[in-house]
Amino acid sequence: MNKEKLRAIIEGNAFTAVIQFLILSSAVVFVLESDRAVWGLEVYATHFIILDWVFFVLFSAEYILRVYIEPRKRDFIFSFYGIIDLLAILPSLFLLPGFRVLRILRFLRVFRIFKATRFILAVDRLSEALRGIQQELLALVILSLMLVYLAACGIHYFERDVQPEAFGSIIDSMWWAVVTLTTVGYGDVYPETGGGKVFTALVTLIGVGLIAIPSGLLASALTEARVERQREEVEDEQKSQSTEDNNANSR
Amino acid sequence: MNKEKLRAIIEGNAFTAVIQFLILSSAVVFVLESDRAVWGLEVYATHFIILDWVFFVLFSAEYILRVYIEPRKRDFIFSFYGIIDLLAILPSLFLLPGFRVLRILRFLRVFRIFKATRFILAVDRLSEALRGIQQELLALVILSLMLVYLAACGIHYFERDVQPEAFGSIIDSMWWAVVTLTTVGYGDVYPETGGGKVFTALVTLIGVGLIAIPSGLLASALTEARVERQREEVEDEQKSQSTEDNNANSR
Amino acid sequence: MNKEKLRAIIEGNAFTAVIQFLILSSAVVFVLESDRAVWGLEVYATHFIILDWVFFVLFSAEYILRVYIEPRKRDFIFSFYGIIDLLAILPSLFLLPGFRVLRILRFLRVFRIFKATRFILAVDRLSEALRGIQQELLALVILSLMLVYLAACGIHYFERDVQPEAFGSIIDSMWWAVVTLTTVGYGDVYPETGGGKVFTALVTLIGVGLIAIPSGLLASALTEARVERQREEVEDEQKSQSTEDNNANSR
Amino acid sequence: MNKEKLRAIIEGNAFTAVIQFLILSSAVVFVLESDRAVWGLEVYATHFIILDWVFFVLFSAEYILRVYIEPRKRDFIFSFYGIIDLLAILPSLFLLPGFRVLRILRFLRVFRIFKATRFILAVDRLSEALRGIQQELLALVILSLMLVYLAACGIHYFERDVQPEAFGSIIDSMWWAVVTLTTVGYGDVYPETGGGKVFTALVTLIGVGLIAIPSGLLASALTEARVERQREEVEDEQKSQSTEDNNANSR
User: Fold this and answer.
1) C40 part of contact set with chain A, CB < 8 Å
2) Residues contacting residue C213 through CB under 8 Å, at least 6 positions apart
């Protein structure tokens, strides 16, 4: 079988559907195996090992096929999806006799789910939009971390005497800072002193806005990219239209 | 009475107002009937049955009328509003003698409220904008579900030993993941180990942004569509203006 | 003193600063008077009455002046700011001998704060942007209310047996629906059954996005309006520039 | 060594990396010193004093160098970064014999972290975008504060009798207002009366949107600025391209 035919099969709908089903099954099996005590599935221990073997063999076969059909093998192996595909099979190596020591890394099979990103159409647009705003994003991430640091230091100053178990150290106070600034607000820790409350009010009113900017930025960037794409499509149509007209005229 | 006249009546303000009033009344009656024990309305049990009959008859009449005036009946019946209108009367079928077994489905009358979407002007724009960004939305939904899955697996790993009742299984941990990533943060479950807190900080700082993108995307898309619409209106005016000018010149 | 001079004074910086100070003082005094038991300010009861009189007289004088200088008095009286200015003095009428019965409405003095909106420059832009997106906003508000209704009915169905005190009626469940969908999540009520948790996960993942759209919409609309304004300014400059050039050439 | 050479060094990568490392180290040391009781680091008290001296001397040297190479020294000293650099060394003055009384201000060393903003590339864009929307931002901040005030007054009215410890005064109620409107929702205070719950529902559904607008506004402004920048770059390229073409033609 030549490579071109194989590539057509691998990029075809049937193969894609099978791989998608395998990824989803792998995630479901991972959960069931992990929760087997809860669901009373311990009697199926052997079945889980068999399923492990199935995923290991099939994902390995997929990886080998993808490397095989690729003309620039090295580029693929070190590409994002190449590494993801490799990471999807590595944690199952413990199944092989000489690698039982890797049993401890079985948990890493959870990352198999990343293989699914290959099939999400708009992931390219998302990552392109992310690249377009990476400098702003970096600035916002650094400013957010600075805010978490300053908020933690501030609340520690106000609350350490009243609530030493929650705000006794800056490191502990950072937990409060993250939970508050992301507006999750579990309610396990919150300021009780007047000063701490005023400080919290100031920090949240500023910080909540700061931490919400990145997603707005990405949303705007995606919209701009889409509008730009549509404009280009319209222009391309008009060009090809006018070329046709010219051809018609010149005849 | 011919169909055109009937259509004019059905699409007229009076008929529309009556239907809107019926939908709202139906929702209010649904709540009162459901809460009748709380409000001491149990003595009105017969009245609720009568009201049930009234809504059943009137919504059925409306459905029949709408089908009757439609030239392409099949298209309407299988359209979004056709199905909604049908679903609004089906759960009341239990009132008829032979269908008492459907009593269990009475709860479905709650979906009558969807009939109201027909009268919201900008719903078209919303659904159009949603269609324009559906690939990005699908990508974001899949990425969000992946994040919920990974967050649940991660927190289960950190917290299962300390809080087995809340994080003892991945399935249970997913409740925490959803409550945290949507920033609802009830506070019924939260990490207590150092590792779990650091993991939560990382996951929320990333995930909160991811889950907020879709609404920003839709907001931007709606604004773009509105700007485009206004530009076209201005251009149309200018065109008709210049046509008038030309006409004036050529006279 | 003629009206034009008076208008210049009223719209001048000094008068504006005095009114702004009065509005702020009025808010501070309102809080202090309300909390006088907490702050041990009860001995100053007479002072609060005197301050009441001062605000009453000064805001009345301001209102009379504004009406006096206005050529179209009726238009001003029924305008937004005309009504706000009147409402700012009405709740103090109880100070007058014949109106003591209005004492109960004293709480309404809290709305004096709305007088401050006159001095916020960009409020015009905000209300203009709001007007531009009012149809979308109305649709989103109706959809949000529908979501609150459906979420309350759903959670009532799942949780009524387990937590009758919080979810025993649909009306009570609405409190949970609002607190959850706005992502406030106090944690006073939350689902405990498996079905209720799955339902909550679905509803929040959809609903949180829906309720966040309006602010994104307004933000985008404000930005579009600003960009449009800047473009027009640039074009105006270019026009006046080219007119100057033409004048220079023709000379 | 002449000033130009020195400036090249100071603006070079090596010097920048050293300063960045110093700022980060300073933050880490600040946390460790503050939490030394928790981490059992009290035996290293002398080391912390030495590190204090190191940071003091190095940041002072940096400040002096930056002032020295600046042609307009006064402008730099009163610029944003000039003041930040000065504030970074002032709280360490207590190390000097005559200034021990300043020991109480040691906590201010936390603001050294602001020195890091100099090295974040996109901070300029953020502050430029902020300047572009400052009038809208000011309006939104004032409206938010008005909302907090009104929400606090309202909830105090509904809840003061039932929960006097949390809502007994307007000032106390403001804590609830901030925690609710930012959607943090710790759950330490929440309304319990029916009226308070209805009021909260209304206020949050409006207020949550209001408080989320600024970040959407900034996100949109940043995107507009980026699109504008890219358009100008494209136009500049086209211009230089056409100039080259003209040159080629004229030859």
Assistant:
1) no
2) B215, B218, B219, B222, C140
**DSSP-H helix ranges across C11-70:** 13-34, 36-39, 45-69
| Record: contact A187-B185, CB cut-off 8 A | yes
Q: Collapse the DSSP code of C130 into the 3-class scheme (helix H, G, I; strand E, B; otherwise coil) and give the result.
A: helix
How many residue pairs from chains A and C have C-beta atoms closer than 8 A?
A: 9
Of B114, B184, B215, the CB nearest to C204: B184
The pTM of this model reads 0.91
Q: Please give the Cα distance from C198 to C37 (Å, whole number).
A: 48
The CA-atom distances, in angstroms, between B217 and each of A41, A220, B117, C152, C216 are 43, 7, 22, 27, 9
Quote the CA–CA distance of B153 and B195 in Å, as a whole number.
Answer: 13
- Alpha-carbon distance of D43 to D28, in angstroms, equals 18
Minimum-distance CB partner of C213 among B35, B113, B218: B218
Contacts of B39 in chain C (CB under 8 A): 169
Q: What are phi and psi of D249, to 5 degrees?
A: -65, -40
Question: Contact at 8 Å (CB) between B229 and A206?
Answer: no
- A3-120 in CATH: which number? 1.20.120.350
Q: Does C174 touch chain D (CB under 8 A)?
A: yes
Q: Which residue has the tokens 């034009």?
A: C4
CATH, domain range D128-250? 1.10.287.70
Residues C173-193 have a mean pLDDT of 95
Contact D167, D155 (CB under 8 A): yes
Could you tell me where the beta strands, DSSP code E, fall in chain A? none
Asked if C183 and B187 come within 8 Å (Cβ–Cβ), the reply is no
Q: Name A175's Cβ contacts closer than 8 Å, sequence gap at least 6.
A: A189, B197, B201
Digit-coded pLDDT (tens) for B57-114: 999 999 999 999 988 999 999 999 999 999 888 888 878 887 777 777 888 889 899 9
How far apart, in whole angstroms, are the C-alpha atoms of residue B49 and residue B58?
14
Q: What is the ipTM of this complex?
A: 0.90
Which chain A residues are closer than 8 Å to C216 by Cβ? 216, 219
Distance CA C88, CA C82 (A): 10
Domain residue limits, chain D: 3-120, 128-250
Q: Assign D246 a pLDDT band (cuts: 50, 70, 90).
A: low
